[in-house]
Amino acid sequence: MADEGLCVPDGTVVNSIEVRDVRKVFGAGENAFVALDTVSVSIRQNEFFTLLGPSGCGKTTLLRLIAGFDFPTSGQILLYGEDIAGLPPFKRPVNTVFQSYALFPHMSVAENIGFGLEMLGKPKSEIGARVAQMLRLVRMEHLADRKTSQISGGQQQRVALARALAPQPKVLLLDEPLSALDYKLRKEMQLELKRLQHETGITFIFVTHDQEEALAMSDRIAVMSSGRILQVGAPREIYDTPAERFVAEFIGETNFIETDFLGRDGAQARVKLPSGREIRAGLSDGHQPADKTWLVVRPEHAQLTGAEGALLAGTVENVVYLGTDTHFHLRLDHGPRFTVRRQNTSAQAAGHHASAGSNESFQPGQRAGVTFAEGTARVLRD
Ligand SMILES: Nc1ncnc2c1ncn2[C@@H]1O[C@H](COP(=O)(O)OP(=O)(O)OP(=O)(O)O)[C@@H](O)[C@H]1O
Fold first, then answer.
1. Crossing angle of helices 109-119/153-165, nearest 10°?
2. 293: Cβ below 6 Å to ligand 1?
3. Across all residues in the chain, what is the average pLDDT?
4. Tens of pLDDT along 255-284?
5. What pLDDT score was predicted for residue 347?
6. Ligand 1 center from residue 62 Cα (angstroms)
7. Which residue from 27, 46, 186, 279 lies 20 to 30 Å from 155 (Cα-Cα)?
8. What are the structural domains, with CATH classification, of the chain?
9. Nearest in space to 289 (alpha carbons), one of 314, 269, 316
10. For the segment 201-228, what is each residue's pLDDT rounded down to a tens digit?
11. Mutation test of ligand 1: which of 24, 30, 57 has the most ligand atoms closer than 8 Å to its C-beta?
């Protein structure tokens, strides 16, 4: 069903939605609450774009402004370059899938999917053809005549998606649509949503507070906190090069080490670890660290070694076997905890234990050292 008009010519980036300096203040005077604080972001055509952040950070508010259910206090929202301030929700080529699917239980799957098209006054023949197409798209042809009260949660989710896609919106807004599903079904629907987005070519703006979901599905992610967008980037960029401490903490597991900033070395920072060792670490563009600065090291980028001469040293407190990997929790000599993650290999599973000195041999109570490649550690903004 990809609309020819939505194809991107090679190499050209077309912005589907542009949010410019949008503020949203609820209430007034002493009760004024800034839900969005000068947010700007460009979302590209055909993109799977995710708004990720903790509860209350403003994700739903931003979606509601794009949908037209509410208005910005100031700032602009452009759709393909045009300000849509004057367009009521039903005139915007934008549709929304909510967490609660809000299907009509007494209607069949097919009738639910066709409902929006009927409201738009489309001819019966067109509705029939579009509903059939949508049923195929979400793989629900065999349940077309079943009442929606008689299908499973995952199937209801598919019907809600088909209903929202049926009028062929240019942008689909999805507000935590998978949160009511159990873990296994959610994983399945994540793949399904990716496929639907790919096959329809529609821009998806997806809201979640689940970082794993965001990493798995998105072309790009905007990480939000307290009404602001802190960082926008591809999943790997956000994970590998978080710009701020909040982003590093919110996405994935992270070790923080307080270090002394010694100076710049080209695009890198020179820092002194609590052990006295000096290393180079990644630095975000334009960031001037303070004298005391946080260094972030992902658990999977660190390895255990002997304590003597290591970058950091401490005592192993716990070893937690998690099937795919094992976590080693250390108490460092200068106080904080540090986690090293090691992926378990088939050789280990088969009982061919690695040689002494590797992670394998470390047990609780034992002294251990930590090393990591200098390029993997980063200095962060607070
Ligand atoms: N109509 C309103 N009046 C006053 N405050 C509001 C209103 N709507 C939202 N807020 C506040 O604005 C902030 C952002 O709300 P929003 O629903 O956008 O958060 P969210 O990131 O989507 O959170 P969640 O993940 O819990 O849905 C919250 O603190 C919320 O209490």
1. 20
2. no
3. 88
4. 999 999 999 888 889 999 999 999 999 987
5. 63
6. 10
7. 46
8. 4-240 (3.40.50.300), 253-380 (2.40.50.140)
9. 269
10. 999 999 999 999 999 999 999 999 999 9
11. 57
Residue of 236 and 102 predicted with greater confidence: 236
Task: Please give the structure tokens belonging to residue 201.
Answer: 């070519």
Report whether pLDDT(58) > 90: yes
Q: Given a cut of 80, is residue 356 above it in pLDDT?
A: no
Ranges assigned E (strand) in the chain: 15-26, 33-44, 48-52, 74-79, 82-83, 94-97, 171-175, 203-208, 220-225, 228-233, 255-265, 268-272, 278-283, 292-297, 302-305, 312-321, 325-332, 337-343, 367-372, 378-380
Burial class (CB in 10 A: 0-12, 13-18, 19+), 99: middle
Task: Report the DSSP pairing between strands 94-97 and 171-175.
Answer: parallel
Q: Confirm or reject: Cβ of 52 under 6 Å from ligand 1.
A: no
Q: How far is the CA of 222 from the centre of ligand 1 (A)?
A: 17
Closest ligand 1 atom to residue 33 Cα is 5
The token duo for 247 is: 């982003």
pLDDT given at position 11: 59
Q: Which atom of ligand 1 is nearest to the CA of 207?
A: 22
Please tell me if the CB atom of residue 299 comes closer than 6 angstroms to any atom of ligand 1: no
* Residues 143, 121: Cα–Cα separation, whole Å: 25
Give the chain's length: 382
Q: Is 216 helix (H, G, I), strand (E, B) or coil?
A: helix
